[in-house]
Here is the input.
Amino acid sequence: MKQTTLGILFYRLPQRLRWAFFLSVLVGFIGVWFHLGTILISTTNLDRRASDQKANMDLAADCRSDWFPMRTNAVSNPLWPWMAAKLAWHDDEALFFLKGKWLNLSVGAAALAAGALVAIRWLPILPVVNLLLLTGLGSLLPRAVYFQPEPLYYISFTTACVLGTMLLFRNPLLHYTLFGIAAGFAYLAKSGIDPLLLAWFGAGCWRVFRWALDKDERAKGWGNGVWAPQRHLTGIVLVAAGFGVVATPRLIWANARFGDPFFNMPKYWMWHDDYAAQSVPFLINFSHKSKISALPSDEVPSLRNYIRTHTPRQVLDRLSDGVAAKLSRFFLPESGKRKKNRPWRYLLQNRGHYLVALFFALSLLYIVARFRDLKFTPGDSAAGIFTAAVFGIYVLAFGWYDPIGRGDRFMMTLYAPLVLAICVGIDSLRKRLALRTIELSVNLLHLVIFAFLTWNIIGLLARPVFIPDQPL
Here is the structure.
């Protein structure tokens, strides 16, 4: 295959120049990250009582002496409050609030840098740079200036997604343990990790099924370099063990305090229709499992009781309206063209456009691969099922929860894993198709995305004025 000019520039740079260019972009963006973060911290989110920040601060004060993140108030999970108490504590509440935001900002920068340094070993320069900018501006920086667990949750959730996907191609036992640990830390940050584990288990079942049907796969045996169902069954136990090692202190503490190791309010709130009228009184009056157990069975918030007290049309409307609202805010948080001198509401207003463009490119490459009879492995199909299932299940869950939690911080959990999965898929097909036209097209796509992201950053730096009283 002939080398194109763009291919030479972005895919086949000498290693020394490749690292020099990459590191210059990485250092430059980290500088932009802290510059914008400083402005956001000093001009936005100034009320520590907004949202659940004060509750997280109060929980941090209670867990200062805890040896491990275990204490919960049945709404907030312990990882972020515990970490803030250990690394940012100050007796002055205002200073603690400020130091906590700076801690989140620093953790986000460290995670971005570490993730980019890992990704550059497997992906070309521009895809990694675009991943860095999209993840930083699209999901992580907007939430890193709050006293909330979202940055830690996004980081651990994305790590779990990466490890879970890797296990569908090759499955060394160590990776199962790491996957369980990552899922455990995601659970300690926020409690909604079970849909990801469910999606991964389903994709793993599909992987076993495809292995059984594929004689080439069976002929490989079960050495360390291949995927083996025998290891997968053992690995599931290791996932549970890794998760348990991290989550057990929290489960023990919650069982002693609330009478249920998995006790949390959102699992009851999700069957309410109004947060202020139903969820807040429920939080005040039913703060222990025994109080909920004392309720008549037809009064306990549950799927069965919700269906019993609502018509099928009401159930369907809530789900469809919530999903539509979540998807619209996820892909296009601010409709219309931004006016020139208007303060910024979002750091990356068109974040969904980039995701759609990348997915469209992936779809076209998949069609070309099908026409050229490119063979897809069982790992390919399992990884696709896992990614689609994670996105689909969480969209349905967040859509249903929309009357209780309307913010976009829930859906932004999915942004980095989706961008990463699509970029990896595009690069994999580019290499396997090995066509000059395909390589040129992929290079141009990433170059255009990089140009638009750079222009977006220039706009932010030229007028770093943000709406002060609304969450980004």
User: Anything to note?
Assistant: The chain has 20 helices and no strands. The chain has a mean pLDDT of 91. The two ends are 46 Å apart (CA to CA).
